[in-house]
Every structure is written in C-alpha cells, then in structure tokens.
Amino acid sequence: MPTRILDREDVAWLLHKVGRHEIMDEVIAALHASLRDYDSRVIEVRKRDGFNYDRRRGARFGAHSVEETGGLLEWMPVLDFGADATIKIVSYNPQNPQRFSIPTILATICRFDIKSGRLLALCDGVLLTALRTGAASAIATRVLAHPDARSVGIIGTGAQAVTQLHALSRVMKIDHVYGFDTDPQAAHSFASRVEFLGLDVQIVDLERLEAAADVIVTATSVAVGKGPVFPGRDLRPHLHVNAIGADVPGKFECPRELVETALVCPDFLAQAVVEGECQQIPEEQIGPSLIQLVKKPEEYSRYRASRTVFDSTGFALEDKVALEVFIKYADQYDIGATVEIEAIPADPLNPYSLPEVALRVLGRTAGTK
Amino acid sequence: MPTRILDREDVAWLLHKVGRHEIMDEVIAALHASLRDYDSRVIEVRKRDGFNYDRRRGARFGAHSVEETGGLLEWMPVLDFGADATIKIVSYNPQNPQRFSIPTILATICRFDIKSGRLLALCDGVLLTALRTGAASAIATRVLAHPDARSVGIIGTGAQAVTQLHALSRVMKIDHVYGFDTDPQAAHSFASRVEFLGLDVQIVDLERLEAAADVIVTATSVAVGKGPVFPGRDLRPHLHVNAIGADVPGKFECPRELVETALVCPDFLAQAVVEGECQQIPEEQIGPSLIQLVKKPEEYSRYRASRTVFDSTGFALEDKVALEVFIKYADQYDIGATVEIEAIPADPLNPYSLPEVALRVLGRTAGTK
Q: How far apart are CA A104 and CA A102, in angstroms?
C-alpha cells in the first residue's frame, strides 16, 4: 500500500524538464477547467482552519516560556466526492527569510483515496502554492482586467511576486512592471528574480506605482490592522487588483474606498469574509466569485472598463488542481518514489501482525548496526 | 530541511526491537504524564473535523456516479505552544477488512516546527492509533475500575480490541476475557490474535459477557442509530466501561440507562458531546474528564465501587504522545529515513530557484532514463 512522494528533487526536476512556462500554463488551464466545471455537490471545499500563534505571543505559562514571532499553521481540505480528498497543510512564518533563509510560506499536500482512506500521495506544497496562487490571479485578470492593460504594479516583491508576475505574463501582454517593497532587499532583488520573463522591471514609490498600473498585485505580509498597503489616491479608472496577501482575520491590503466602489470578486466567499478584502464591506456588496466569473465571463465583461478586485484568500481547490498537474507529469516521466508509511498489518484485525516486516529488517540491520 | 519519516518498516522494527509490552507501558506512562501536566494555555487541542462520505452515499451528480460505502476522513490537530504542532489525519472505512484486507482505521501523523512551519516528521498512525487508544483505556481503567476487577468483556473483537486488551493487561490482573463480535470471523480469530497475552479468552453471547465482566470495552463499528451494542440488563454494580467506538455524530455504544446512571468521563468534552456517549445525556450530567481524573484520582476513587463509563472519542493529545514515544525510540536506535519534501528554494524569495537540485537530478537521470 505505497504512498507516492513527490519531494523537492522531484518537483524541481519536473519544473526544469517540463519547463516553467509549460507548467504554469497547465496549472492555469487546469484550474480554469476546474472552476468552470465546479459543482458543489461533488466538490466540498472546506474553509481554511488553523493555529494562530500571535494570540499567545510573549506569554509565559508555568515552565513554558513562549517567545514566538507570530505565524500560522493551517489545514485546507477539499473532497472530490467518489474519488479522493486533498489536504494541504500550510504554514506562514513571515520572519522565515530573515531568520532561516527559507520562504515565509511552507506547505505539503496530501492526497487520500476515500474508498479505503489510504494516503495515496504526499507532495511539496511550497512551489505548488506559489504556482497555483499565480494561476488564480491570471484567471481573474483575464476576465476582469482591461483588454488593453499593459502595465503591472507589484506591491510586495517577495516569493509570491515571482509566480504572480509569471502567471500574469502568460495571459496578458506586459510592457512595464513597477515593483515596491518595504524591505529594500526584496525590492532590489526583484528584477533579477524575474529576469527570465524578459520584462522591463522598475522599483518605484507607491504613488508612481499606483498611478501607472493597469493591474496591481498585492502580495504582502502587512500586519493585522496595518493595511492598506497602497494609498489609493490616484488609481486608473479601469484598475484591476489581485489582492493575494490575505491569510488571517483582520489583515487586508486594499484601501477601503477602492473596495467600497470596485467590483470585488472573492475566490471563496466563506473565507474571504473572514480573512480577505471582503472583510471591509457588507456581504451584499460583494461581487461574483471566481467560479461565477469563469462560468459566465460574458456577464461580467462590462466590468473590464471599471475597477475590480480579485480577493484571493487561497482556495483548497487550487491546491488539488496543482497537485493533479504534478501527478500527471510525474506519471508521464515516472518520477516519485513510493514509501509504505501506514503500518498495514498482515492481518487487518491485528495491528501487531507486522512480523514479516520486522524480521526482514531486524535480520538486515543486525549485521549493519 | 529534511523531514523524518517513520514508516511501516520503522515502527514494525521498533515494536519488535523494543518489545510491545515495553512500548505499551511507555505510551501509558507518557500519556499519563501528559494528562497530569496538561495546561490548556500551553496545549491547544482541536476538536476532530472531517469529511463524512455517508452524507451523499449513492448520489449521482452530472457525470459523477457516487457508489460509496460510507466512511470518514478526519484531521486532529494539537498545538504545543512554543514548540510544535501535531496533526493526525485518520480515515475510517469499516468495509476495509472485507474489501481490501486492510484495517478499518488508517492514519498518518505529521509534526511541524511552529517557529519555521517546517514539516519535521511524518509517521505511521495505524499502529500508533491502536496503541494510544489502548493506553487511554488503561489509564481510565486504573482510576475508575474496581480494585478487584479481574474479568474483561470485549464487544467488537476487531483490530482495536487487540491493543485494548493488551493495554488493560498492563494495568490490571486479568483472570477471564469474554469476547463478542457480530462478525463470526472476528470473534473466532480473537483468541489467537491475543495469544501473546497468555489469558483465558472465551467467545460468549452478550448476556453472558455483560453479566460476567468487571470491565467492558466496546470497540465496534455499529452504525449510527443502531446502538447500543449490549443490552445492559444484567451489569455488575461496579462495572467500568471503556467505550472507544465513537467517531461520528449519532453513533453510540452504551445503553442509555447505563449512561444516565453511571459516572461518565469523556476524554475530550467538546468532542464527546458531539460524537460520544455524552450525546445521550445533558451536559450538566457529564462527569470529570480523563484529565481531571488523572490530576486528582483521589477525588474520584469512591466511584470505583459504582458504575463508570470512559467516553473515549479519541483525543489529539494521545496522538502527540504516541508520536513522541516513537520519536524517542527512533532517536535511540537511529531509525527513520529523511526526505526533503518541501521545495525550499536556494533563494527564499524565489520559488523557482531550485536549479542545483534539478540539474543534479537531470544530470543523474539523463543516463539512466
């Protein structure tokens, strides 16, 4: 009963073998198809839930001294009824780059066969999260941005910015890219990190960025209560925003006036009203979801001339789709080792009936230990 | 940033190397210590949540034909604040033994470092669930059963029954074991599955079992609404029951009259009122939790002469403890391979910066593929 593992080497190998443009295009196409065909009677997406360490930061209980820097650990389950279930477990530790030289967002994705409950696959979720979040923005941008949009402003030029710009470049012609980050190092290194796209990238101040951008992406770690991340004083009349930084109640990135007046489209309403830009407006003011946009794009095409916001909180369906793309390529190239993680006993009614395994291993290691 | 994997071979090896009595004793001792030292400001246990396939069984949506047999997939998270988080993902597919010759309950356990969000370890949860559920019953039995209790009745002699009886045998002297199962095969094979305990095991009818038992364990897959699993007409005045079958709302195993009159002690109140025997009584009638029992056993010792029920719904803290016991032994014997699952990039701000991995692997496999 093996579990297939797609690890760091495997996803890196596929990224280079298949090509990042081809993989991004495939994730965009597969996500588009999943959204278009979405049927809530077949696919059950759960709202993200998790632990928020901020709550008890700096506390001291008995022998425990708690010196945390804040962060989240969250689980994102989605059930494909009659087939499988996918659960991404994702962490958000915004001090990771400085403290440990690792990304803010780490993740792994598990897939289960629902007929038996078996763990079918375990896959990296770091690269896949970046890809699928980019793909979602690309799909929203294709439906909501002005047809002549050519300039992109990126606020928060960290890890997610790379795949955001990459994904946008696959669905729109980009003449100019304007970047901004409160961290000078992240701003400074952005152009080299997206050099493979061959775009004109300038680091500018927020005023210049917001005045010049047809499409804005916000991908920040702004703290709760510290938003918005751009002033919103001089925005283009047809501006489309992909606000992707949402991950915790109270955090938002867009100016309230923009959210009040624009067409605001959540990826997943139940989550967006808790964590996303939709927190800023009454529920009856919220526009169609990404699923509704994709199912009937013609109904919303008139909004391309006005201001629109894609409230991207991160949707478990996206993780399912990204996993399926990687499993497809892994099958094609026969990549990914298998491990028997679950201790399936020889007799299903006897959890201790693992002797053949143990004796084999004891025998093997007796001489080597 | 490797993740340590304790797979089927590893846990089987440890079970045989360390010895199952020693491992069970260690899980009982470690769980007892964790319950005794439990501080809800430091340990945050989440109520089990999950997908229940029963809800849409036999449905047909568009192209999807759903021919399911019912079952669950659930996640059980627990946070040790300032240290780590443990999430067990557990499935319950009661037709597994007949359909696939695998256990009803499958599981894997993940551990995360909360400072960085990294996946530290991934371990089998099949053996560990059986062990920790046994250990919880042993602890409840030690506090609540009559000091002279010598006979054990097991209703539902499947996989969990093996570790239930094993755990009880570590904390009480057992003269007689009476088993019952609605499945003749499970009943017939029980004695041989617990032969290693050297106990006198008889398969009897429910009337004989309930009349003769000082301690009863219910470990059944009884369907929702089909309980109780024993009549409760002729119970000993000091009977202690470990009811461990709870896993879904509406399911219970004990006769209502017993639950109404006994001291009912849940492992985890919030879960027991939804899934456990506690569903059958008003909340104000529920007795102390296992944690309260362990913290102040002397306060409840008078109940040993009367009827008591341990309402064991399965508690994420137990999984955390079982994982820690296995990690301790794995450290001691240097067992468990490491895998880099998370695609940590060379540059934390660039998810695509995995070239050294990809080139190494592309180079290596170019000749072998």
A: 7
